[in-house]
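Extended Data, panel c. Modelled sequence:
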Amino acid sequence: QVQLVESGGGLVQTGGSLRLSCAASGRTFSDYAITWFRQAPGKEREFVAYINWSGASTNYASSVKGRFTISRGNAKNTVYLQMNSLQPEDTAVYYCNKNPPTDPWGQGTQVTVSS
């Protein structure tokens, strides 16, 4: 069973950048499409970005398009989310999961953008 672990979150000022990582433990996930989600306090979890198994196809939520970039590592066992021009509304816990998502979800990584 693949377990996905998110990392790379932190506190950053408005306009700053962070790179999140989604790594697999247990077995490779190079054959899986991966999606990043986020959940802000008091809000439902929402879609952020998607990448297919090969990395050739990506998709983004309109709120992050042009600022965030999803990519796969060379070994395709890590998926990254490069986040630039961060805004306070990007503050959330970020999760990665297979597509379609399966249980259990990971712990996520907290991203906090200060104004």
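The radius of gyration is 13 Å. This feature is highlighted in the accompanying rendering.
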